[in-house]
Amino acid sequence: MSMTQQAEPAVGTPPAPGPRESDGRTRERPLALRVLARPEVGVFLGAVAVFVFFFVAAPSVRQGGSMATVLYQSSTIGIMALPVALLMIGGEFDLSAGVAVITSALTASMLAYQLTMNVWVGVIVALIVSLAVGAFNGWMVVRTGLPSFLVTLGTFLILQGVNLAVTKLVTGNVATDDISNMDGFDQARKIFASSVDIGGVEVKITVFYWLVFAALATWVLLRTKYGNWVFAVGGNKDSARAVGVPVTFTKVSLFMLVGFGAWFVGMHQLFSFNTVQSGEGVGQELIYISAAVIGGCLLTGGYGSAIGPVFGAFMFGMVNQGIVFAGWNPDWFKAFLGVMLLGAVLINLWVQRTATRR
């Protein structure tokens, strides 16, 4: 008789625990990739490279006064680049930002001088005008659905023509009259155009405003509901509206922030030089937008930071003044800017692809 043996399950100790297998979807990305995913990393590395280059090529850059000049040049760009960057994160951009600065300065100067009023009256009216220009741009974009490129291009041409025509009509010249002897000028100059002595080096107050505004913008973007709205409307405004984001308010307020920046820089220029040339400002809008793009903001919206444009503005200031300190032909400035812009776009593209690569 044949007997069939049936195998019994072996009884033993359970296997030692080993590393869990992952399908890749829940795996945490390495720290290096998470750092590279930040939009300001590429421009930070670029700013360091530009600084080191001119630190070696132009020995005078190493002096405290020279660096103060670089920071001042950077701050006048950076203060405007910040609201422009926020607007770009929100999916729009403003071509009228450059001439809006001059519009603000002209308004304050001519109103105070021609009506013989305290300069603070002109400053307040200029703020109202600047905010109104921003609100108009935002309202037109939202109301008509036209690209902000077309709307703000129209505003750019309007402001450029009004700046020249009204200044000639009122003053009989292309520049405003000197307001340095008017009531309130000294107080306004201390707020908008004074300097702070640090270790024997005169640092313009705009440098401190620039850093404070950057810190405030960073906090708003990363820690407030409004910051979430900005990213949401820049990513997909229809989806944002569907989940309750006030798209109209967000976009209009972003354009008004650009107006506020234009007012602030305009007041600085007015109280620094006592007078304003009505034909200035053309082309500056491209500098502001370029600083934001170099800082990691995408033209398509929904991506960027407030710290990136700080480094982008610093690169502009470093190149602008570094060429002078190195004794080179300043005509090369725009060529350097073009190289920086293309380089930044390529670096940002590489950083994004590297950060999202599995």
Break the fold down into its secondary structure elements and pairings.
Elements: H1 31-36, H2 41-57, H3 64-89, H4 97-114, H5 119-144, H6 148-171, H7 185-193, E1 195-198, E2 201-204, H8 205-223, H9 225-235, H10 237-242, H11 247-273, H12 284-294, H13 307-325, H14 333-356
Antiparallel strand pairs: 1-2
Order of neighbouring strands in the sheet with most strands: 1-2
The overall strand count is: 2
What percentage of residues falls in helices of 4 or more residues?
55-70%
Order of helices and strands: HHHHHHHEEHHHHHHH
Overall pLDDT metric: 86
Overall geometry comes to: globular
Summed up, the helix count is 14
Distance between the termini: 63 Å
Report on the biggest sheet. Answer: 2 strands, antiparallel
**What is the SS-derived class?**
mainly alpha
Low-confidence stretches: 1-14, 21-26
- Assess the beta-strand content as a share of residues: under 5%
Q: How large, in whole angstroms, is the Cα Rg?
A: 26 Å
What can you see in these coordinates?
By secondary structure, this protein is mainly alpha-helical. The chain is 68% helix and 2% strand. The chain is built from 14 helices and 2 strands; from the N terminus they run αααααααββααααααα. The protein has helices at 31-36, 41-57, 64-89, 97-114, 119-144, 148-171, 185-193, 205-223, 225-235, 237-242, 247-273, 284-294, 307-325, 333-356; strands spanning 195-198, 201-204. Strands 1-2 form a two-stranded antiparallel sheet. Helix 4 (97-114) runs antiparallel to helix 5 (119-144). The radius of gyration is 26 Å and the shape is globular. It starts with 30 loop residues before the first helix and ends with a helix. The model is unreliable at 1-14 and 21-26 (pLDDT under 50).
